[in-house]
Amino acid sequence: MAFTREAFHRAAIETPSHEDVTAMRELLAETLESEGIDPDTDSEGNVLARRGSGETELVLNTHIDTVPPHIPYERDGDIVRGRGACDAKGPLAAFLDAFLTADIADGRLTLAITSNEETTQIGGAHLGETLSADGYIVGEPTGLDVCHAARGQFEGEVTIRGESGHASDPTNGTNAIRAAAPILQALESYDQRGGPGAHDLLGPPTLTPSVIEGGEAINQIPAECTIRFDRRTVPPETVESFFTDLESHLAEWLSDAYELDVGLVRPEMPAPEAFETDPGESLVEALLDASGGGLRPFGAATEASYFDGPVVVFGPGVLADEHGPVAHADREYVDGGELKAAATAVRETIERFLG
């Protein structure tokens, strides 16, 4: 059966990919093969397919994994509901349509689909290391707006170490939980004394303590306390510069009786940094002309931050509407008209970029 955007979108939603993406990866590969495209799967489970040849390369990237729980496909007129309807099987269906149908005159078009964007983002980071293209379009629900910037996200932790002892005499130990109070104050003051400051487009960074753990027994002075936090960053801050500066700042708030460690919660995993693409880039202008959408930042961290080159985030659907959350919510949906419009806009951008 020949590819249709609507049929693939339905099949994708009906294929659960919140715990295991194997079946969804197979659906994508089989669809490409049925259209005469021979896809590859790289060492990190990314599906890659290519058309055309030449020096100029454009990459279409989105992901096949979803958050739990799975929500079945449902259609009501033009409105399609289900898990992944907009995040990100909607953009995937639109990108796949454009990839298969665009008229490529000169250049190479690469479809690069990751399988762990919602969790580790190892696939996206690997693509950033192995692909070198002239432009990237990353599929996420933007309401057909062209998003040329986004804040990054670091998941960090502060570990305070003291010395345990019997709680009957607090002077026999160094209470790590007591030190949490000045550290929390220090986290609140960090962006007033350091950090990158407010960005013209993305606004100020944020630093939000979100988890605190410490102690083993009520009658024991706690020797360790850990505070975990969410950092939403803006250019030019990097992972390395942030954690180096933050550790120096926090150390000023503690006495020499304590030891302090600051770093990523999962240092072995990639951390998406903020990105910004010049609105004057030809890719941005081409997609703006084709889509008729607005130009703005994206509201969440994405795999776009891993790509070295002009990158935009674009796709059908929205993260939230006037009634509340849409993506990741129980009411996740997308308008079929936006799926078609997104496919058309990406196709026209491809043909302008590679024409």
Show the helix and strand layout.
Blueprint: H1 5-14, H2 22-34, E1 40-41, E2 47-53, E3 57-63, E4 74-76, E5 79-81, H3 89-101, E6 107-114, H4 122-130, E7 135-139, E8 146-150, E9 152-161, E10 165-166, H5 180-193, E11 206-214, E12 220-221, E13 224-233, H6 239-251, E14 259-264, E15 275-276, H7 282-291, E16 295-298, E17 311-314, E18 320-321, E19 324-325, E20 333-335, H8 336-353
Parallel strand pairs: 3-6, 3-7, 7-17, 8-16
Antiparallel strand pairs: 1-2, 2-6, 4-5, 5-20, 8-15, 9-13, 9-14, 10-12, 11-13, 18-19
Helix pairs in contact: 1-3, 3-8, 7-8
Provide tags for this entry.
single chain; 20 strands; four-stranded antiparallel sheet; 355 residues; Alpha-Beta Plaits; Aminopeptidase; six-stranded mixed sheet; alpha+beta
Structure commentary:
With 355 residues, the protein is an alpha+beta fold. The protein has 2 domains: 226 residues, Aminopeptidase (3-Layer(aba) Sandwich), CATH 3.40.630.10; 113 residues, Alpha-Beta Plaits (2-Layer Sandwich). The chain has 8 helices and 20 strands. The strands form 6 sheets. The chain has a 6-stranded mixed β-sheet, sandwiched between helices. A 4-stranded antiparallel β-sheet has the order 11-13-9-14, covered by helices on one side. Helix 7 packs antiparallel against helix 8. 44% of the residues are buried. The model has no long low-confidence stretch (mean pLDDT 96).
